[in-house]
Amino acid sequence: MKLSKSLFNGILFMALTQALQAQTTILKGKITADGIPMPSVNIHLDKTTIGTVSDSSGYYKLENIPAGRYKLIATHLNYSRYEKEIHLETQQPLFLNIELEPLRDTTTLQDVVISGTMKAVSRLESPVAVEVYHAAYFKKNPTPSIFDALQLVNGVRPQLNCNICNTGDIHINGLEGPYTMVLIDGMPIVSALGTVYGLSGIPSSLVERIEVIKGPASSLYGSEAVGGLINIITKKPHNAPHIFADVFATSWGEYNTDLSFKTNVGSNATILTGVNYFNYQNRIDKNQDNFTDVTLQNRISVFQKWNFTRKQSRLLSVAGRYLYEDRWGGDIRWNKSFRGGDEIYGESIYTSRAELLGSYELPIKEKLLFAFSFISHNQDSRYGTTSYIANQKIAYGQLTWDKTLKSHDLLAGATLRYTYYDDNTPATKHHDATNNPEKMWLPGIFIQDEIHMTPNHKWLLGLRYDYNNIHGSIFTPRLAYKWSINDNNALRFNAGTGFRVVNLFTEDHAALTGARDVVILNHLKPERSYNVNLNYSKKIYLPAGGIIGLDATAFYTYFTNKIIPDYESDANKIIYDNLSGHAISKGASLNSDITLRNGLKFITGLTLMSNTITEDNITTRQMLTENFTGTWAISYQLKPLFLTIDYTGNVYSPMRLPLLSELDPRKPESPWWSIQNIQFTYNGWHQWEVYAGIKNFLNWTPNKGNPFIIARTNDPFDKNVVFDEQGKVVPTPDNPYALTFDPTYVYAPNQGLRVFVGIRFKL
């Protein structure tokens, strides 16, 4: 009897269970961020007790869910909140993959980066230290170009090389611009001529984030990555808004417009188009030297990116950009009728530049990716009577093979780079004065092995071989070690070598401006560098809910064959030669990212460094390098008022500056100087933002405390300068300081306080 009763109860329980399960369903899927599986993501159905956490591979599963409509919520501390309305039907499991978007106003250990290893990994997992700056960070101080925007990045300084035409390059840890490689979507687009003349005009509306590596990256990226690299990652079309516009103007008469929009072509292609237009035509001479304080510019840049949907999510992306710019600076009386003449001095530069880049994943079982780029750059310039007309074409192809074998994550690749360069200077002339354009082939192969010793320890070994048809064979090995202490702490050690082949006239604007002759003493050899750095990153969660991110790095780089321009031996010449000794760059940096629950946010950075040159047992400090730099961006949100306040700035210690002679009355060193800005942003209107503020509210310019900045603006063609038999300048009553015309004494922007106002729209 008891047995029959127990059997009946068991059958009844099973029947009820089956009936209950018949009325429920299952929700499951995978959570990723930029294609990387995301563990430890909280997933739950709003207003229910049903929830779970994604596993180590990013998978999640919710069971026994009654049929109905729900709001699915996925949250992770370092990513934007994900919400989606879903409809679950009885006995019909729903498969839903979730793509998380990173918080756009912070940098975190979970950010996805690609620059360190050419693979998409989280910052925490990358064995190479990579700094990440999202587009929202640069909106704290809106600028008309990426070149200007980088002034907010710790250890990175946009350096103007000419007080008249305002062209410049990017310094990382005090190293000159030619040591910095600038990439767009991993392709070496901005190099050589583009480093000096073409860095402007990348539409900021298309920038997803900017990744920065400090230290040699030549083992993966080859020449020009000898001091570090900046990788500008553009938005994927599916992540971009349908329409975006950002327009601002300043009280100096600058007007900048950024537009982007995306469209679908059929069901398999998405097009993202961006346009940047900048115009400045106001002749301002606040330091009263009769020369323009800021170069006048008229620039347009158009960028278009095509993404195609393919089987098995294989990659196919093609992008192109065209830039045209007309800029000039000089005597405020100048117009185009004086271009190239010796009556009224002006520096006029016409730039026409076309770029093409793309990536194609081969339709085979193995993961093979072919990436390519092509650049055509034409330059037509006049620096007073000096004519500089140049044409450069660079074709680049790269095939990579990505393979995982147990604890080894392999990456192998082959590259080929062809550079054609021709100009009207002695750089492309035979000894018999016939034209001899430079045609340089640079094939290379590389291999990289990430070895996962244990879940928390990883080694990276890399080796690259390049053959230059002028300089011969070049080897660049690489070693990295990463210890993932836990989810919020990582320690990295990196060591490697770098190399750089040289194109003087495309890299050093001072060789063209002014009235100096260029002298190359010997056949120039490739520069080499040897680097070690130690990095520690940490995330701290405050009891009150705030977050502190810290990133500290110590670095040391040793250079041989370094090419040093000598401005001081002869005031009328720039003399180039390989250094017979060595150069050293060393220092330490600290970045901090603090977010508090009360709406305050601090992003700060400081770098202590020393850059020296040693020759004949004499060590001197390198020209135009600071020993200390600091940056900050402090933000506060007044949420009830829909108002954000951003206070941004930088500070630099004194630099050694190029003087023309011992009699030159200008200061031999710059003072401590700082550019500081404040911005107010109102976002209380749907899809609209209005912002306004003050740039450089301290009104700092380099002429403060100096008798003049540009030497002899009254005689820019040196018609009244007297030279002795050795070619040195002789002091005269008209020229008591023995000077020639020289606009290269520059270390800070010559643009003072100005008010700006702008508006943004996003659909």
UniProtKB/TrEMBL annotation:
PROSITE patterns documented for this protein = TONB_DEPENDENT_REC_3
- In this protein, which residues make up the domain named TonB-dependent receptor-like beta-barrel? 266-696
Ordered alphabetically, the record's keywords are:
Cell outer membrane, Membrane, Receptor, Signal, TonB box, Transmembrane, Transmembrane beta strand, Transport
Q: Which domain of life is it from?
A: Bacteria
Q: How does it sit in the membrane?
A: Multi-pass membrane protein
Which InterPro entries does this entry report, sorted A to Z?
A: Beta-barrel_TonB (IPR000531), Beta-barrel_TonB_sf (IPR036942), CarboxyPept-like_regulatory (IPR008969), Plug_dom (IPR012910), Plug_dom_sf (IPR037066), TonB-dep_rcpt-like (IPR039426)
Tell me the leader sequence span. 1-22
Tell me the Pfam families matching this sequence.
CarbopepD_reg_2, Plug, TonB_dep_Rec_b-barrel
TonB-dependent receptor plug domain location:
124-228
Task: Tell where it localizes.
Answer: Cell outer membrane
The family classification in the record reads: Belongs to the TonB-dependent receptor family.
The cross-references to PANTHER family, in alphabetical order and at most eight, read: TONB-DEPENDENT OUTER MEMBRANE RECEPTOR, TONB-DEPENDENT RECEPTOR
Listed name of the protein: TonB-dependent receptor
Q: Which organism is it from?
A: Niabella digestorum
